[in-house]
Design a protein that fits this description.
The chain is mainly alpha-helical. The protein is 70% helix and 4% strand. The protein has 12 helices and 3 strands, in the order αααααβββααααααα. A hairpin with a 2-residue loop joins β2 and β3. It starts with a helix and ends with a helix.
């Protein structure tokens, strides 16, 4: 419904940033302040993650039921999106019933292109939550001579109710988590002349590279790399905080380095915004890590002022460097 493609892209940028913060919430430890944990949980809604609602708060729910309910919720996101788009299309069509045939055709083409755009938006919205749940559904560990699901030890892997879950999870990992960035990269490389010249192509596909300069369209892959590290960090590395923090930090460091060095975005303000997002996410990642190690408690034990001063100085230094270089 947002006709301005640039505004639409900014909305997607904000959504992805909030998704990343929510993904980092999975690295929070018992020492993380409760208020901050609650913020992480609420932000999961931007990833189509319904885990803020506890299904087993009254009676235990088997793992396979939790999985299918989560999958159903992700699929259900498509319903209101396309319902609103369908209603908007036919309301506009009704209001244009006396307009020229050319104007009507252009408007219908606009909504047809928006359908494809909305599919990618929906996949982007659910990419993180679907990826995490799909990978978690395949991570097993040997216990008493048989493999059991790491997130649900009462579930025997690749047997009974888990078998269809494993098959669907494998398909999602292949077709969505891996397939989406690969398909976009292939499509962009196949039509290099359309990226900034063909209006219908841009209407369908360009919100991944809308703000980028020509020749820098592959930078969008950094975002997917960050999401993959979040998926892997949550599903596989929960018991390995050092490795988890290193892998998660790598994505934000790479993004910050590319933004500062290459300045891939057309507007200087976009370079600053993306640089600040990378800095904030890098800060959140390492805050969770240091909190888990008890470093923050140690500094707080010396002085609250010391803790706030160190955090403030580090944050201000990063922000100043990013803003200065990006401009």
């Amino acid at each position: 419904l947002i006709k301005d493609r640039e505004l639409f892209t900014y909305c997607v940028v904000a959504m992805r940033a909030l998704q990343m913060i929510s993904g980092l919430g999975d690295t929070a430890t018992n020492d993380t302040p409760p208020t901050l944990k609650k913020i992480y949980e609420v932000l999961k809604l931007f990833s189509g993650d319904y885990s803020i609602i506890k299904q087993d708060c009254i009676t235990p729910v088997p793992y396979h039921m939790q999985f299918w309910m989560a999958l159903g919720h992700s699929v259900a996101i498509f319903i209101p999106m396309f319902t609103i788009l369908f209603l908007a299309k036919w309301i506009v069509r009704f209001r244009m019933r006396k307009a020229d045939e050319i104007d009507i055709r252009e408007t219908m083409n606009y909504y047809a292109d928006r359908k494809i755009r909305c599919v990618f938006v929906a996949f982007t919205l659910t990419y993180l939550s679907v990826g995490v749940r799909s990978l978690e559904a395949l991570i097993c560990r040997p216990i008493d001579g048989e493999y059991r699901l790491a997130v649900s030890l009462e579930t025997v892997c690749f047997n009974g109710t888990h078998l269809p879950v494993a098959i669907v999870s494998g398909l999602f990992l292949l077709l969505v988590v891996v397939g989406l960035p690969v398909a976009l990269t292939f499509w962009y490389r196949r039509h290099p002349l359309w990226l900034f010249t063909n209006e219908r192509f841009m209407e369908k596909y360009n919100f991944f590279y809308e703000q980028l300069r020509p020749g820098m369209t592959n930078v969008f892959l950094i975002e997917f790399y960050i999401f993959v590290t979040l998926i892997f960090g949550k599903a596989v590395l929960q018991q390995h905080p050092n490795t988890q923090n290193g892998i998660l930090s790598s994505g934000f460091v790479i993004k910050l380095f590319i933004v500062v060095w290459k300045r891939p975005f057309t507007l200087a303000s976009d370079n600053v915004i993306q640089g600040l997002i990378a800095v904030v996410l890098l800060f959140v990642t390492n805050y969770n890590f240091l909190t888990g190690l008890g470093v923050m408690d140690g500094m707080r034990g010396v002085s609250d002022l010391l803790l706030y001063t160190v955090v403030g100085v580090v944050a201000a230094a990063f922000l100043a460097v990013v803003i200065y270089i990006a401009y």
